[in-house]
Amino acid sequence: MTESAHLRESLPLDPPRLERTPLDAGPLDSTAQLLSRITDQLGTQLSHVTLNGSRRRMPQISRPTLVAVAHGSRDAGALHTVTRLLERVRELRPGLDVRLGHIELNEPLLPDTLAAVEAEQRAEGVRAVLVPLLLGRGHHVKHDLPQSAAAVVGADIRIAAPLGPHPLLVEALCSRLAKAGWRPEDGANRSAGVVLAAAGSRDPDSATDARRMADLLSERLGGVPVIPAYASAVSPTVPAAIRALTARGRHRIAVASYFAFPGQFAAASAAAAPWIAAAPLGAHPALARLVLQRYDDALTTTPPASTAAVTPDPTSSSSSYTGQWRELATA
Q1: Dist. CA 34–CA 15, nearest whole Å
Q2: N or C: which end of the chain has fewer CB within 10 A?
Q3: Cα–Cα distance between 205 and 82 in angstroms, integer?
Q4: Is the CB of residue 320 less than 8 Å from the CB of residue 298?
Q5: Quick one: pLDDT band at residue 33, thresholds 50, 70, 90?
Q6: Three-state secondary-structure class, residue 176
Q7: Residue 277 to residues 194, 272, 274: CA-CA distances in angstroms?
Q8: What is the DSSP string of 287-328?
Q9: How far apart are CA 265 and CA 197, in angstroms?
Q10: In this structure, how many other beta carbons lie within 10 angstroms of the beta carbon of residue 33?
Q11: The pLDDT value given to residue 233
Q12: Does residue 171 contact residue 281 with C-beta atoms inside 8 Å?
């Protein structure tokens, strides 16, 4: 080996780069320029200091309010669970104004939450992001949320994508299944199968989202067949999906609860399970991270509701669905 080859091998492949400071931001032609630049830097630093030597508080740039939109439920556990979820969100993003609004059944209702935000922010301009705690596209996401946002005239209110489908939900689903009794070796069991129990919607996009979620869960579980099923509106029902898996020789059938919070639909789906039934997603840490990701995506890719179409377009570059489908394509 030549001396030059030895030298190349002895050098790091990616030597660390020295961070450039304001003082070496460009070439200096004279001592006068160096002194001028030092003076500028000292002036900037001293502008943050008061006469008594304490440092001035720099004004904080307020972030838009995150309004988490839950459906609402007569089940008392739903409100308790969504409250715990939002506590996790606040822990992950200290200082962010996080509020709750319901579409129906529970208080505060979304219009009341938005009215409170408007009253507090009217002087500086209302800015908020509605993050639906819903698992797919449907009437609430496409119509109810835009209508509520449009009612706040002159506000900058953006609407994030629903939570699903998304790989973080797969993480939460697998965690809930494991807690219910699913073991890693069940993924190789030819008698195992999973029913992904969802609420159901007549909107075809909602069914598309559920099927994609079932595919992602199947991949994570090692190829075990996962059939989406619904508690209302469309077929197959959970019992019908169980029968279909049984006809295929799958007798060790788990029900994965694709519900954000406890409720009648989740309870009925779990009751139909012939083997194990996972709990709803609830306040799982992955769900809290996903809420913030939807919030951040909406700020960068979604126009205000006053200028956006009522129905978000998953293929549009101006919609927060864009990042979602890119992630799913590479998951």
Answers
A1: 28
A2: N
A3: 25
A4: yes
A5: low
A6: helix
A7: 10, 9, 8
A8: HHHHHHHHHHHHHHH---TTTS-SS--TT-TTSTHHHHHHHH
A9: 9
A10: 12
A11: 86
A12: no
- Counts of helices then strands in the chain (DSSP H, E): 12, 8
Residue 102 CA to residue 263 CA, distance in Å, equals 15
Q: What is the strand order of the sheet 192-198 is part of?
A: 226-230, 192-198, 252-257, 276-277
The count of C-alpha atoms lying within 13 angstroms of the C-alpha of 311, restricted to the half-sphere facing its C-beta, is 8
Question: Which position has the token pair 């609860």?
Answer: 257
Which residue is it, tokens 């029968």?
Answer: 243
Counting every residue written for the chain, the total comes to 331
Per-residue confidence at 138, pLDDT binned at 50, 70, 90? Answer: confident
Burial class, 65, CB count within 10 angstroms (exposed 0-12 / middle 13-18 / buried 19+): buried
Please identify which residue in the block is written with the tokens 């059939």.
Answer: 227
How far apart CA 163 and CA 330 sit, in angstroms, is 18
Give me the residues paired with residue 197 across strands.
229, 257
Spatial separation of the C-alpha atoms in residues 113 and 78, rounded to whole Å: 18
Residue at 201: amino acid letter: S
Euclidean distance between CA atoms 320 and 72, whole angstroms? 24
Closest to 86 (Cα-Cα) out of 243, 221, 287 = 287
pLDDT digits (tens, 9 = 90+) for 176-207: 999 999 999 998 999 999 999 999 899 999 99
Pairing of strands 156-159, 276-277: unpaired
Against a cut of 0.70, is the pTM above it? yes
Closest residue by Cα to residue 147 from 305, 299, 312, 301: 305
**SS3 (DSSP) at 40:** helix
- Provide Rg for the chain, Cα atoms: 26
| CA dihedral for 112, 117, 120, 122, sign (positive or negative) | negative
CA 140 to chain centre: 17
For residue 310, is pLDDT > 50? no
Q: What was the pLDDT predicted at 323?
A: 36
